Amino acid sequence: xxxxxxxxxxxxxxxxxxxxxxxxxxxxxxxxxxxxxxxxxxxxxxxxxxxxxxxxxxxxxxxxxxxxxxxxxxxxxxxxxxxxxxxxxxxxxxxxxxxxxxxxxxxxxxxxxxxxxxxxxxxxxxxxxxxxxxxxxxxxxxxxxxxxxxxxxxxxxxxxxxxxxxxx
Length: 168
Description:
38% helix, alpha+beta, 2 helices
């Protein structure tokens, strides 16, 4: 049978081990949260890039419309293969996945004259970025969720030929 001092030493070792496990767990949790937030910031940057790609593709589709009447694409796939010409044109290389949801599904913004004038994420998650957007994305400032980040082309103002991002 162990003596009283040996039992105290075992008890002290056990308590020290519990404290060490708690400290390590706290550190690992903090590092995981930091990594998760950094990954989300990267997905936000990717969403801004992809949204800009959709906006520019819709603009090219609209401006390249054959004849006098301009039109928006009826489907997002029309941006990948525009069959309005004898040789199909590609305004996008492929349909991108939404980096916030991981799916190739997008909310579409319908043009008043018909067709698709823009896209938005379907993610209702809260945005990390609230300000400091580039000029073409200024309208996104103050948006609460990614679903409010809208990327559209609207040929309404002569001084804004590239369209804009909108916040709903």
